């Protein structure tokens, strides 16, 4: 037995005397974990549930001892054996550890602190950017796991998050603490209440907001509208209809649910044919009507009949008013010739045939 007056620094590295009722074999140099404790950044709730991997510092008259909760949920404390603490609240586990220590040591020289929280994996699935397993600390809450999984997608339904825990399903909007083995599912919004944006090869889907303009969506989502964008196409799912507007009109247009909105860098074309001077394509401009495209191709009131203008769209011929009709990218505008031009052509054709016939008859008469 060691004397109360013995300075045991030579044996143990301690600089203070040890009471006589402790055996020398229990006195040992601190290990590297104890010499380099890990301090928690935030206070730990007294209701924190202890589990395998949590790390305690046990204060003994013989020195501090670092002990980790084993996979079986126990602490191995020198001189006291195993102390089962798994699934206990922190305050209850500390009380049990102290009661165990009191059996062997004087309560004036003992203590216990939780110095490091366990880390474990939880699964995060659904409307997050990087679904899969994430590693969290023992005091982590739902939002921390979702953040580690890439955060909510814009199409996430934040009104309810599901947590699958030991056979139970918890639906909650609260940022509740996680437990080992938890699986989190972030549900998607109803796709019928979304708007889709495509630009520069990227596609993002956002929740539909009533009365919100395209410009407001662009600001909310961070879409970079540079000067190269000139036109916007809006596709209506239910009607399979596409509408085109200029970029300068996006502050006036309010999309509907399920609209697919695409920003175009270069304006598409409208094709013009028939009785025009320059048959071919004209760059699309949402502010131009049928007469503008025809005029750009060089039609005249003598050669072309504007009142009988027709448009071929998606393989179907439709009638469009030359003054007020709507033209879409990819349309083919056909300008028929005027009756005067048709009559002139027929007369010329008939005259040509008669001329040929007369020439043949004259040649036959000369031969005979």
Notes on the structure:
By secondary structure, the protein is an alpha+beta fold. It has helices at 9-12, 32-35, 90-104, 142-148, 214-221, 290-296, 339-367; strands at 55-60, 63-68, 74-77, 81-84, 111-116, 119-126, 132-137, 161-165, 168-172, 183-186, 194-199, 202-207, 231-236, 241-246, 260-264, 269-274, 280-283, 310-313, 316-319, 332-335. The chain contains seven helices and 20 strands. The chain has a five-stranded mixed β-sheet with strand order 7-6-10-8-9, covered by helices on one side. Strands 12-11-15-13-14 form a five-stranded mixed β-sheet, with no helix packed on it. A hairpin with a 2-residue loop joins strand 11 (194-199) and strand 12. Mean pLDDT is 77; it is low at 1-39.
Helix content: 10-25%
Shape: rod-shaped
Taken in chain order, the helices and strands follow as HHEEEEHEEEHEEEEEHEEEEEHEEEH
Strand percent estimate: 25-35%
Strand order of the biggest β-sheet: 7-6-10-8-9
Mean pLDDT: 77
What is the SS-derived class?
alpha+beta
Annotation, overall tally of beta strands:
20
Instruction: Calculate Rg over CA atoms.
Output: 42 Å
Question: Stretches where pLDDT falls below 50 for ≥5 residues?
Answer: 1-39
Q: Report the end-to-end length measured between terminal Cα atoms.
A: 156 Å
Largest sheet: 5 strands, mixed
Q: What is the count of helical runs?
A: 7
